[in-house]
Design goal:
mainly alpha; binds geranylgeranyl diphosphate
Length: about 400
């Protein structure tokens, strides 16, 4: 137990150092099948069903920064649209066979939708890059082009979320997980076989929506992201001792597993809004760096968070033999830690020893610093977007930057 207390103490100290460091750092057409997925209520009601878990998750554990008047809450900004996306997702994942239907909808039910980090980023990016956000073209006349374009951009959020949840379902089977998002994981509740099939089903529904966008470049980006998820997972489960101790290998795997999906989705938004290649690359860079920062903090939280705050087991990575950035940095300070890891983290005594080294090291602090560096790069990408005076565009860009702060200050 003292090891955990040491790590928690060090983590708190590292967090406040890091916060000081960070704050001083500069930082076409509607798919034909679409109506079938649309719930009638979404257009009638001003949905505002935001999971409390979702917004709480991104609150800083430390003192809140003082917001200027023009600062924005990213989640409130897209709350209504997130509800539209959530409702549409619920209708998209309905399957013919009852057992498959209940498996596929499992993580789309209200209250277990997770942080909805990806759709939030994608919707904000859509406004940050697209001036014509469903504004009436003239009084009383809705601009149909803007509305249709916006629905296509929302489809990217839906596709991304379906792929994300599919990957979680498969991941939980591979890890033999028992909890996810604070409830029993699907494999635990309904079994491995139906979990794998539900993941496949979600992927197929994502493909149908993707095909309906009729944009081969976007299809290619999203397909690449799916390939990366599989590649990253395979890299993680089949690494050699040498690769397990390599920061480069870890970062490559992290890009594949966490950052590729959000970065390629952001780039897809840029392509669908007709941006130049340069701007599309900036959107991609934002997603990539935000995704890397997100995962680096996830890796820190795996050591410093509690099971209830994480919605899954604490220390789950190291107990599964997965070596992440905090341990890799600790290894640089204490090279003898490498042989502890090589002896095998399936032995709880080696896990305890590794945690002891981590507690003595600056591994947590250095990981937070690396996350801050990527968050800063993400902010810089937004700052390089072409100038635009539109109020909505400006507000969404500020929200995307605000998200980079929240990602590195989050406690769950
Ligand atoms: C079926 C597409 C597909 C892939 C199969 C298993 C596998 C290959 C890939 C695993 C990918 C994976 C689970 C990456 C981890 C990404 C990650 C950071 C998940 C947690 O994201 P959060 O915290 O989760 O945003 P919530 O629950 O909030 O949505």
């Amino acid at each position: 137990m003292s090891i955990y207390r040491t790590i928690n103490r060090i983590s708190r100290a590292a967090t406040s150092n890091y916060q000081r460091l960070y704050w001083s750092t500069p930082v076409q057409q509607l798919p034909p099948h679409y109506s079938r997925f649309r719930s009638s209520s979404e257009q009638v009601l001003g949905w505002r069903v935001i999971s409390p878990w979702f917004s709480r998750s991104f609150r800083s554990g430390g003192p809140q920064p003082q917001y200027e008047e023009d600062q924005v809450d990213p989640f409130s900004l897209v709350a209504d649209e997130l509800s539209i996306v959530a409702n549409r997702l619920r209708s998209m994942v309905v399957a013919e066979v009852p057992k498959l239907a209940s498996a596929a909808e499992y993580f789309f039910k209200m209250g277990v939708e997770g942080k909805r980090f990806r759709p939030t980023v994608i919707l904000l990016m859509a406004t940050a890059l697209n001036v014509q956000i469903s504004k009436p073209a003239s009084e009383g006349v809705v601009d149909m082009f803007s509305t249709e374009l916006r629905t296509r951009l929302q489809a990217i959020a839906e596709i991304t979320e379906m792929i994300h949840v599919a990957s979680l379902l498969h991941d939980d089977v591979l890890d033999d997980a028992d909890t996810r998002r604070g409830i029993g994981s699907l494999n635990f509740v309904m079994g491995n076989k139906i979990s794998v099939l539900a993941g496949d089903f979600l992927l197929s529904r994502a493909c149908i929506t993707l095909a309906s966008l009729k944009n081969t470049e976007v299809v290619s980006l999203i397909a690449t992201a799916v390939e990366h998820l599989v590649t990253g997972e395979t890299m993680q489960m089949s690494s050699s001792a040498e690769q397990r101790s390599s920061m480069d290998y870890y970062l490559q795997k992290t890009y594949y597993k966490t950052a590729s999906l959000i970065s390629n989705s952001c780039k897809s938004i840029a392509l669908l809004t007709g941006q130049t290649t340069e701007v599309a690359m900036l959107a991609y860079e934002y997603g990539k760096n935000l995704g890397l920062a997100f995962q680096l903090i996830d890796d820190v939280l795996d050591f410093t968070g509690t099971s209830s705050s994480l919605g899954k087991g604490a220390l789950s990575d190291i107990r599964h033999g997965i070596v992440t950035a905090p341990i890799l940095y600790a290894m640089e300070e204490f090279p003898e830690l490498r042989s502890v890891v090589d002896r095998g983290l399936d032995d709880p005594a080696n896990v305890d020893l590794a945690l002891e080294y981590l507690g003595k090291s600056h591994g947590i602090q250095r990981t937070r610093e690396l996350a801050a560096k990527h968050a800063s790069l993400a902010s810089a990408a937004i700052d390089s977007f072409p100038e635009n005076d539109d109020e909505d565009v400006q507000r969404s860009r500020r929200a995307l930057i605000e998200l980079t702060h929240r990602v590195i200050n989050r406690t769950k």
